[in-house]
User: Fold these one by one.
Assistant:
Number 1:
Amino acid sequence: MQAGEARLSIDCGDASTVAVLAWADGGASALSFDGLPYLPSAVYVGPDGEVRTGQRAWQAAVEHPSRLIPSPRRAVDDDVTVDKTPVEALALAAAPLRTVAAEAERVAGGPVRDVRLVVPAGWGPRRRTWMRQAAHRAGLAQPRLVEAPVAVAEHLLATGLQLPVGAFIVVCDIGAGAEVTVLRRGPAGFEVLSTLADPAAGGTAVDRALTAALTGGRDAPGDGMGDWATTQSIRAAKESLGSHPAVTVPLAGRAPVVANSTMLVEAALPVIRRVAELVGESIAAAELSASDLAGIYCVGGSARLPQLDTVVAEHTGITPAVVPEPQLVAARGAADAGASNPGMAVPVEVPVPPVRRAVAIAVPGFASLALIWQCLLTAEEHNVMNVYRSVRLNWGEFTMAAVFALLACLAAGTVLGSLIAARNPTPSTRTEGGKVSIGILAAVSLGAAIAGLYAVVTSQYFGEPVGPFLRWALWPITPIVVMAVAMAVVAARQWRAPHGGWSALLAAPTGSIVTAGLGMGLIQYSLTADRWPDRLLWIDIAGRVGGLLLGVGLVMALVAPLMFRLILCAPVAVISAAIVSKQAAGILGVSYAVAVAMWWAARLWTRIVRPATTSPVSAQRSAGTGPSGGGG
């Protein structure tokens, strides 16, 4: 895969910088720096003007701590004084980005043209422009800025969070500092309702308090500065205390000390209380109450602070969820946000259906053609003295041909949507939901048109009024059309994506179609075959077997669990076999159409309205292995 097909997403925090390299095939990986999944944001300015980043910066600061800038992103002024020497702030902010760009180019095999930068939601135009200039100074392509809480919310949706349009969530980004944002999901994406930040309510404050507790208040690094080895030891201890009751912490120039979980709780408690206050204040600023929220989600390098969920729950009544890989989630969400070139028409690929989906399209299509062909060839025409002319048709078979035609079109709904979007790539069809919605509506229109065409062609073929043919073709499929339109509305509003994708949802049960279609074909054969004395038994057996198969196909459409199918198959199949006749054929065909409509209603309810699947975010509320120290 070429470097130009990659997307680079960078979350440059006050304490650490994380970057994710994503590819067009959906794969993504976090970049590593000196063996770590993040790059320390600190920069060191040497006496000769050389700017060092990451671990090299902290190592160089052991001898000259005054030359270390721990958070270059905070310096927005034109110049920063380093050991009485002015240094351009933009150059300092560009240094970590330049290191990330070099690593991304090495991994991708060339420059990456699609770059996204994660920025706080509270940043105004001046700081955003400044960040773009820093990216340009670092040699990156023109970046797209993505607000951190919006990127997090998009990642939550992509990983299975069920969040309807109009829902509200709170994103707590706890890194070196804290930023709490209230978002609302709209039809076109997430919008920020309120955001509050406190640079002192994060991992840096916890590191400082824990260092003071371990050293007795002596030689504690201020604002993240100090001995590099001590700082790294404190951060490693903070991460280890999340899973161990006590750890040994080596300190530069002194004997090792023991840190326990109680010390970490005492160091983190003021920060946690401040975060809980920010959550309450941001909810109030959005003019909402806690009962209006769909959830509170914590991300960032310090999102796993002990008792964070307890304290926030005491303030709001809602237990927050820690998103898996909290330090990387914003960068992952930004990597998948939007088109690669905003404002330009995005080419839409027309997917080639895999074998399984092609079968789901072909089976009902061929079944429909076979039934309408048999219906036309075996219809009984009566002509009394060229005056009274009538045609006896198997209305059940005619109805099932119309149903199968509609099901074939619906199974091809996603392909139709992609074809329409490729020919007319308007903004409404560029999104996955827009393509699916247009495809479903096109499939419904095409299926109904084919059913109507069956009616018109058959009426003209026999020279009969078209009214009865339209009634038997269109009325039975009306409930299916209503359910499909409801799904199109859901897809257009991007309310909820079904588990397994829209293609799987739109595919009718192939086994039911084959069984029911073969059953109706046998029934029609038994009703219209020449009843020679030596064939009477076999013709009657064929009709009863057809009734059994049609009953089995009807049950397969009604219920999915195997046990329920076995229970229902016997009575339904026996009843349908017993009533096989010219008068009952229409009832059997309409019954199958009703069963298919009920199948669609069940899919709509269980896959979209009330999905039974559990959100992976809530299922992994306390899972994950992301770093928990000082990131932002």
Note: Confidence is low (pLDDT under 50) at residues 219-226, 339-350, 613-632.
Number 2:
Amino acid sequence: MAEVRFKGRIIILIAVVVLVFAGIGLRLCLLHLKPAEWVLEPIEQGRMFETKPMGSRGRIVDRNGEILAMDLAAYHVYVDPKYIAEHGDAEAVSRYLSDEFRIPEIEIEDKLSQTNRQYVRIKKFVPGHRLKRFERRAFGVEYTLPDPPEGSATNIYLRGVGLEEAPIRNYPKGPLMAHVVGFANQEGIGSAGIEQRMDEYLRGKEGLRISKKDGRRREIYSARTVDIQPEDGATVMLTLDQQLQYVVEKTVEKTCREFNAQAAWAIVQNVRTGEILAMASFPTYDLNRYAKAPAEWRRNRAISFNYEPGSTMKAAVVASALDLDVVQEDDVFDCENGYWIYGGKPLRDSHGEGELTVADIIKVSSNIGTAKIALEMGNDLLYQSLRKFQFGNRLDIGIPGEEGGIFYSPKNWSKISITRIGMGHEIGVTALQVVSMMSAIAYNGVQMKPLLIKKVIAPDGTVEEENRPTVLGRPLKPDTARRMQQMLARVVMEEGGTGSKARVEGYTVAGKTGTAQKIRPREEGGGYYSKNFTSSFVGFLPVESPEIAIIVVADDPGEYTETGRKIKYYGGTVCGPAFKEIAEFAVRYLRIAPEGNRIYVAGPEE
């Protein structure tokens, strides 16, 4: 009887066990074949992923389509320490990555030891062309370790190692046009120059991708539910010309080094359209290594450096006096043999002259003669006339950092201010403002708005924005401008003119030299330095039908000895030869005939 009871218990126990396992089996079947919503939800959430790919940043090109800035394919290399610890060979992966990317193995081992993490960067911004071999080995292709350590697998898969897109901004021309093009930082945000000003157009637009990943953390392409493609940024075309820019940059550098100047800069402008064909500043820097350049090297002095222009301002003063019929070019002024006292302060000329006509005052650059012409105009007329040339205003050229100069109203002038402003002191200008003034004289009194950005082109080829030549003002009557052109031609073409070193063989050149003492800071006592100058030359050619205007400026050129005597660095001595070198190349390259038959670009309707 006891035996029967025992067997019955065993049968019941077996039945219970069978039922329990049957229940578990049934439950497993239900979970796999028709799982409940609350079971599926966390699993599906873990498999889902969302990315927002960014379109490539747009290109910057010169007027001929030469690429100045572009995105290069690059990647961050990362590891999944948790996955490698569970499914891979950390030692072998560490050894391979160390060998491939020249990183100390101990650094990679330290990162792989963070097994609670699923994303750790190993190497940032690796160019795509350097990853071809790595990609073959990293994504599921078997790789044989050379000379494997004892006890290690000889064949591994580099699973748990991945690539994250991270495009690099590349500047194929290096330092060429650096101050205009500017740079984008590692986050892809424009931080200087055109890169900053046109960031809205250049920056790519985000896409959206929602999909699922498999057990190896790879995307299941067929499971994509949302796939909105990113859009690339637009292309920005500049008015600059790469070939001309190169010559201007080399000339500016040569001038700076030859005369031991602190810095030098230059601009070439099409007088009829306002287009800037070249804009250079030295010292310069390599855009691909912008972070290593001193802040002062990154400064675009052509638009951001305020300086007293010296005698180049005489062109605007005399032209305005002629335009207002205050003087005529054959009127005579006593230049006091080079020494004159007005308002209790002396004013000197570099060469003592007696009586000079207005035309000769410009030719020999007499400070005293110009000061007397300014006095004939009076404070208000002089101020209003120079404002017509936009002195004191930003010209809105299209890149950050442009200064508007310093030009106070007459209520802030002293008794002698009018005589000093007439000769280019007590007024701060930029090189862009001065070349724009000279372009207005060259273009028969019409001042064109300076243009640096030609157009913006969308990825599909449509033009999103186009800048056309625009008249900024008409500071002079056409007849006055033509008379002034001939007077400025005497500065360069006639013996005794201060700009003779700017002559270009076969062409008639007009221009004006400038040499101004530099201002002494207040903490050093104020006033002016006696041996520190800003030298410049601004001019245009050909005079018969002007096409281009050029300005060259040198900051504080030193002194040197030539044949045993000390030479002072006047604008004609320092910057005249640089003007000549740039002009000689420009007329050939732009195919400008001596009589001005321009073929290169069409000017605006007059």
Note: The chain is about 35% helix and 20% strand.
Number 3:
Amino acid sequence: MQPRQQLLDIWKAQIAYSWRPAEDGSKRREWHWGGRNDSDAVGDAQQLLCLLYPAQELPDLRYADPDATSDAVLEALSGLGDAVEIPIRIMRLVKDYMEKHVDADGVPVYSGGSNMHRVDRTREAAPEQRGIDVTEGFALAIPLSLAALTFLADFAPTVDRMGRADLVRELEHVQRIIHRRLLGAITGLLRSFAVSTFDADDDFGRQLIALINVDGQPDRKIVRRFREEAEEIIATLRTITVGSGGTAGVEAPTKLFEIGWSWSVVEKAPDIPDVSDTSTQRVGRAEDAPYLYFTVVALEAIATLFSDRVMRRNLLTEEERRLAQSLQIRLDVTRRYWAMVASFGGGSKWPLEDVPWRTTDGLEYDYYSLLVCAVATETFGSSRGGDDDLIRLANVLVELANRGRITRRPLVGDRAVEMHFPGVKAELAGIEKLDGPAMIWNMVDFAPLLLKRLYDAAGLLVTINARAQLLEVADLVWDHLARRRIRDGRASRLWDQPRQVFTELPNHFEDPSWHFTIRVVEAMVLAAQFAGSEPARSRSLEALAHELLVEAEHIYDQELLRGSGNAGPALAQEIRSVGLTIRHAKEVVDERPGTAFSLGVKALIDLDRLIAAGRDAETGV
């Protein structure tokens, strides 16, 4: 796969597509915002993140310091200029984005209008519908802002050395407008959190009970068990007092509920008064009910607020940190809720394993199973401990690769192809109140999202065989994605051309989908981080290595006792070399038992040769 090289190739292809001659006919070049969809806050954030995100997550891809930028990075970004021009141009791209996506009063907007599609194509969408803030806009603003702040912090010393006051002022201005967007995104996510309650005997309740009742128990018993398992979750919901959410009636003993993020700020979401800038807190329009897709993107964004990089560099203001703590409560309780539902009952079969996942509004897609895996993975891997839960989740991911026609060929008229194009549709309930048609959001990122989840789960697994199986499937998913890369035209080497895999699809695209491409970039970053992590340790091999080293050390001590260490210079040097080998093996045995085992074998072979040589010398043979 070579993820770092793939990221460099994506950068080169992105520059070739986006950095174009100016439309006024002059020789200068300018950045072209947009791709397959028109320019909006969501799509442009994804486009910019393709440049910023890898450089902040992988140190060897950074370009903020001209003196430390590698030749490979310079070559990939050469379309933007030399080592000094590249960071200046990217700083101005960040500035352009931040200043472009504001309303008439200069207040940041988080809209994704071109991602919305009308259900009734005969009706035009109202401008207010296209311009509404969406949860994905809030979510993208967080990693974008944090990546931009990291980049600017690394670039600032170079700007100081240049001695250019205009660049210093420009950098400080960009930092200020980034923080304004970041604060608005955090408050937006606080106000789009949703808690949906319903009775066991209404439509939503019956759907949830049918989903989690894998043992065929009476409904009243399922309700009672659900309430018992959700007791700590309900207690946590009581602590949510900032923004939307809270208990919302979940404390009633007969109620069932779901939690997560809606597609936008929920209707009647309260303002958050104790913030320095309340201008981004617009009136909520979304139904107060969670959507799995928007829940996943919100959780991934919130997690970046607490990454080691952000905490170590102290990127957040005191106000942002305070509000982020409220988001962390939501992140934790949401993960625990969906892990509970996914593995409800803890028996021989989980609801998650009964693919496809069925939502409470009666929809079922393999894509929803993948989204539940995305929410629950961290809980299975940390809070609950051990590999048993993770292995069961990993088996679901392998099955999803099959059912998604990635590791198997599609059938004629296969419904699974719809997940790849035109995608799974989510109705944006509540948007029709803005004097326009009902609208949907298309989700087409099944394949790259699956690749992300495979690497995520593999990184948490300790069991070597289970990890190896996931990595084999990950290679097959990457082969699938590589075949979907656009092959010609201005967008060559970007994504997505699903027709190249699913030949029955009629659509051929000339422009890239930044929504799809950023998902591939995120997967490549995870793959690179995984490759740089410690290998999985085999407990049995570790025990065997320890036993082998005990034997090697004992024989080594015997040789020292026999006086081999005081023999001639050549023999003394060899015995000292064996001792160093054993010592090094003991140092690495806990982290790299396979390496320690190999070193131990080498030490034993060398010792056996020395012993045999000593016997030959004694007998004169």
Note: The two ends are 56 Å apart (CA to CA).
Number 4:
Amino acid sequence: MYENHFGFTGAPFLLNPDPSFFFDSKGHSSALSYLKFGLYQAEGFIVITGDIGAGKTTLVRTLLNDIDHEKVVAAQLVSTQLEAGDLLRASIAAFGIPCKGNTKADLISTLEAYLTLLATQQKRAVLIVDEAQNLSRDAIEELRMLSNFQFGNQALLQSFLIGQPELRTMLLSRSLEQLRQRVIASYHLGPMDRDETRRYVEHRLRKVGWTDNPQISADAFDECYEWTSGIPRRINLLCNRVLLATFLAGEHEISAASVSRIAQEIRAEIGEPLLSNTGASASANASLALKESIIPTLTQGLDGPVASQSWVAPVINPEVNPNTPFLLCLTGSRTGCLRASPLLKALSCRTDLPPARLLHIDTPGHFELTQDWSEHLGLRNPDYRLRLPAGNGLTHLAATLQQLDQLFEQHRPAAIIVQAGDDTALAGSLAAQRHGIPIIHLEAGLRSFDRSRPQEVNAMMCDHMGELLFTSEWVAHDNLAREGIPADRVLFVGNLLMDAIRAMLPQASQPKYTLRQLNQPTDILKSKSGVGVVYLQQLDKITNPEELTSLVGILRMVSKDIPLIWPMHDSTRACLDHLGLLQSAHEGHIMALPLIPYHKMIGLLGHSACVLTDSSTVQEEATILGIPCLTLHNFTERRITVEQGTNIAVGHNSSVISRAVAEILRGGGKKGRLPKFWDGQTSSRMAEHLLTWIRAKGISSPDRSEEQTPLQVEQQAGF
């Protein structure tokens, strides 16, 4: 429709896979090389996985175009909702073989005879199974059995399994271990990066004769990447609509604003959330939610009212074997998941350690581990999941203990790994101690010396119950020694958060794209003084309206010198709005945002002039990123961030805060340095220490030297 307007010879962004438009990105080039390597080997299985729209089908069609059909006979299965018997029939039909019977013996005999005939003709057969994640396990096992067909020393059938990431999880299950041992190469096709996204768009445009008509700004390419995350099908959909809109407007230029506008239209059409503030109506609804005590929780949508759920059974991955010795890592918060991600990756590549499993606890109204979070962190789906009923802290603690007690009766870990001083760590430690399960405590020995804080008491109890204590700073050893904890239980390893942030930085999103996706103006980013970030996670614990009013007043005072961006939870927004403080914040130079994904938050922090927070995690993030941090408390258990990092504890003292902000505007604020062992290698050190500790404890570890661990499967086979 728009081709003549721009002088194109065809449509550049059709959704149907077309090998003539194949773009040789780093990922696609590697995946194609793995497929060709598989053809060269002429045996075993090749596995290629990728997200929806990553370009897997285009990859397969490109391979089929390159195959020497005089030597290789290729058949493709595209409908894979198949059981074992159906798979045999579908394979025979794909090769175009006439079948003389319907019994399984007839089907196998027919297929083997055909494959043997090909071998006598110096040909070989390749079966390409698209959307392989839809196959039943019996069907996959049938494929393995077919790989046993031989003619002399030659394998008669080679299979390529192409599918979505769920296929990786399937193949890692114990029941498919024999097939996994026959995977000679595999690769996970990830999204393209920012530069590749631009080159991909330009490549497809040049294929149809693009000569800079329309003109596309550099920001427009960046905007395209931000909205599509570098996934080819999303890029095609967005670019096609942008070209159409440009044509209908009679224009010949494409700007970032037009890309953003069309992207939001597409999201609205397909029902994806826009993550935008909705003004007064949102505030009114939030206020109503507060008054009626209606807070969205993870238990909504379950049968029956939330209040009636006094017990929710643990959700257990059916693939886990309760009889295999394993290490169990507990998470229940944003910070917990951040630290668990690099540790689990490090443990998963060690065959000399018991396998590591993840247990996540969902608490109503708190952090939710979504698929989006898991993908950005590289955190696999939990092996166990506890969903707590609605209630307060004590209710949640009791429910967690009850569920963990049941879980440990059925699935007894060799040891559990808990973190810092949240309620998840305390509940896990108490339940493990009752069952005689050793406890490993991360972030041990951190003290604010304020015993009125539940986190402080929790952390102390976990330290005294723990048999192996990993610390992130030397001062923690002094704290533990004063409390009588033997030094031989304590090891200084560094900060896991550094490992997580180092892995996350390549994905970090620039603030301007985050604001555009939230339908927010970007003018605030043009301030000569830079922009500050506010992150308050304990605001809902302040029940005194005067204290809240004072805090918002302090933020308004700061915003006169430096504009502030404040990502906040819905419950925080409702609380502020109920007290009439949200409008007060809007009247200052304070932009309120909903909570944003971590890769966007890191991008926001990394480009900020300072951060004001009550979060110990953000204090660490600021030190890692070199951003001045003003902690709105008079205490912190992360003392190293004050002594060596960029952190200053300013409390709610307006004069101290004013001086600190003035110093930031005048000279950039406090300059810190990275503490010892905050080097991105903490997870590797932990794995080494765990091996020594496990051997000393005599904890049995299954012989995994012959098997591929999940990370080794990913590295050797490209996952």
Note: Residues 393-410 form the longest helix (18 residues).
